[in-house]
Amino acid sequence: MELFPPLPLESWRDTKETLHRFAQVIGKIRLAGSPRRNHWWNVPYHLTGRGITTRPTGPTRGGDAFTIDFDFTDHRLYLRTLGGREDSFPLIGRSVGDFYRDTLRALIHLDIDIVPEHPYPYDLPDSHRPFADDDEHRSYDPAAVTTYWHILSQVALLLEEYASGYSGKSSPVHHFWHTFDLAVTRFSDREIDQPAADPVTREAYSREVISSGFWFGDDNVPEPAFYCYTAPEPTDLATRPLHPAAASWTVNRGSHLALLKYADVRTADDPWATALDFLNSAYRAGAELAGWGHRRECPGGVTDSVLRTAPPA
């Protein structure tokens, strides 16, 4: 299989808009049924060998915990309990309203007493419309979703390699249903006050961060791309050099974002090395200006100085 196959936004925009809302429905169930973690780390999806998963979710202190998994090979949603019960239904041919009702039916069938607390899209143009009333979004192209899943899996492995070079506080590599991106975030110890921010943003950025990842395109950046940003943004960040030459700084929602288009990665002589070079150059741009230094860096995932210089066994 091609390492990074093409997936222009316009080739699957309708499917992506539907799948994004499917993911938000299940993501809000995860939000309602899981213990809160710092920076909302309880909320995103993690990857499996066939799709994405909520991971085991409530009830705590005993009871029949459950997972909800998107299977992008069979194109089905699976709900499974710790006690071995299961329900599932196809993803193809359903509107968001159908998907929401089928999900609630499956939860009832499995005696799971958890539902989204606010069953509306989050930060999407139709955030005023309940999921149950959305019969507009109903496109699902299995071939496009399979390609999305292929790209998601490869980029996750690449981000794991990138993440191995940092020994400080770092998030998992996880898939956010808010912005439909795959991200890994590095943290410093500096607390950040955000008096004008909403509660979601305050918790996400309560510490200084450098976040890197990949998204599949949206109205702000209408094509797939790798990205990196530093928050809060240090002065002169956008003057720092990036690698490769195709990378650039762009203004997005009032701050500067290091951006490398997916098309420039997948057509490079060495796409993997090109993407890693970009992520590392963007990280260093923010880290040097923010005064992070090099003490948290651990090439190859090795933190012990003796092991780092020892010859291979």
UniProtKB/TrEMBL annotation:
A UniProt-annotated Pfam family: DUF5996
Protein name: Ava_C0101 and related proteins
